[in-house]
């Protein structure tokens, strides 16, 4: 809560949330060759997050591995939690039961994906649904976003957002229906959203910008490894913080509209991620982190 709050439409949330992908393994195909994650431990971790002030969660029906589904773990945790938690899911991509990726859903298939999320989460409506743009070749999103806008009008979805998009997609979507958030890969060493102006555009429009892989950086779904960036290590030492906390704090310093959704399966890391909201970087820290040192577009 020390990081402040922002609104997803009419839903006020604390800026540090939680991403469920790693609950099913390290990446969406995780645990294929190992023991499944303990179900009770995963649910307990979610409840720990809620107890520490996390009140918005990122998920998707395609976050699953053998024997485990992020949505169903989240459903179980929410069933025993008395307070409101905003759940943001995403549609567009899909996987078959074996885990193989399917082609991007057609607009007429999005209702089925929304209904699958509703069934897995045990809800009668979804708080936020992000249209995930799948692949660089898809230019127009109007037809897909229009299909989701119809589901919003029907009461199945409360608010709409976008994922993996460029500024022109935001402009296009807003001609169809309101956009409350944009999810893109973004962090200290992956700053394409700065180069395109997407972070600033979201601020100007009052839209939440929600970076994913803010901690993992260029390793993406492979997860975070031992920190190698000298800039991050120097700032971490200066504040007695972890590198992951510095990376999260850097994204939060980009503006009050920037949220965080770090995921983890470790209770200690969960507490550290949440505590990153209290880390205040100095001007010198930000200058160092913004300087040369491996930033990637």
Structural account:
Helix content is 35%, strand content 16%. It is α/β, with parallel strands linked by helices. The strands form three sheets. A seven-stranded parallel sheet has the order 3-4-7-8-9-10-11, with helices on one face. Strands 1-2 form a two-stranded antiparallel sheet. The chain has a two-stranded antiparallel sheet with strand order 5-6. Strand 1 (5-8) and strand 2 form a beta hairpin. The chain is globular and about 50 Å long. The protein starts with a strand and ends in a 7-residue tail after the last helix.
Quick summary:
By secondary structure, this protein is α/β, with parallel strands linked by helices.
Q: What is the secondary structure topology, with strand pairs?
A:
Blueprint: E1 5-8, E2 11-14, E3 18-19, H1 39-51, E4 56-58, E5 64-65, E6 68-69, H2 70-79, E7 86-91, H3 110-121, E8 126-132, H4 142-153, E9 157-163, H5 167-174, E10 181-185, H6 192-195, H7 198-205, E11 208-212, H8 230-239, H9 243-252, H10 267-275, H11 283-290
Parallel strand pairs: 3-4, 4-7, 7-8, 8-9, 9-10, 10-11
Antiparallel strand pairs: 1-2, 5-6
Helix pairs in contact: 1-2, 8-9
Strand content: 15-25%
Following the backbone from N to C, one meets helices and strands in this order, namely EEEHEEEHEHEHEHEHHEHHHH
Structural class computed from helices and strand pairing? alpha/beta
Could you name the ranges where pLDDT drops below 50 across 5 or more consecutive residues? none
Number of H/I helices: 11
Number of strands: 11
The rough form would be described as globular
Radius of gyration, taken over Cα atoms and rounded to an integer in Å: 18 Å
User: How helical, in percent, are the residues?
Assistant: 25-40%
Distance between the termini: 31 Å
Query: What is the topology, as strand order, of the major beta sheet?
Result: 3-4-7-8-9-10-11
Q: In this structure, how is the largest beta sheet organized?
A: 7 strands, parallel
Mean pLDDT comes to 91
């Amino acid at each position: 809560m020390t990081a402040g709050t922002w609104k997803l439409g009419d839903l006020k949330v604390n800026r540090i949330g939680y991403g469920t992908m790693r609950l099913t393994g390290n990446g969406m195909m995780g645990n294929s060759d190992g023991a499944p994650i303990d179900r009770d431990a995963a649910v307990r971790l979610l409840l720990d997050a809620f107890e520490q002030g996390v009140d918005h969660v990122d998920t998707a029906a395609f976050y699953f591995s053998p024997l485990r589904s992020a949505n169903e773990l989240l459903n179980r945790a929410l069933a025993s939690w008395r307070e409101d938690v905003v759940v943001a899911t995403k549609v567009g991509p899909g996987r078959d039961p074996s885990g193989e990726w399917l082609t991007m859903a057609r607009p007429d298939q999005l209702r089925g994906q929304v209904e699958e999320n509703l069934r897995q989460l045990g809800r009668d409506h979804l708080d936020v649904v992000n249209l995930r743009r799948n692949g660089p070749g898809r230019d127009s999103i109007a037809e897909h976003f229009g299909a989701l806008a119809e589901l919003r009008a029907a009461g199945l979805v409360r608010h709409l957002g976008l994922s993996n998009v460029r500024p022109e997609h935001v402009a296009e979507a807003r001609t169809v229906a309101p956009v409350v958030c944009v999810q893109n890969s973004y962090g200290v060493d992956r700053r394409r959203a700065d180069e395109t102006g997407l972070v600033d555009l979201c601020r100007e429009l009052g839209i939440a910008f929600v970076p994913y892989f803010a901690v993992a950086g260029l390793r993406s779904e492979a997860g975070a490894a031992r920190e190698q960036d000298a800039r991050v290590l120097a700032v971490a030492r200066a504040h007695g913080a972890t590198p992951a906390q510095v990376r999260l704090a850097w994204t939060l310093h980009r503006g009050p509209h920037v949220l965080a959704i770090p995921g983890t399966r470790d209770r200690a890391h969960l507490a550290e991620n949440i505590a990153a909201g209290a880390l205040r970087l100095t001007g010198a820290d930000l200058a160092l982190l913004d300087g040369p040192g491996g930033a990637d577009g």
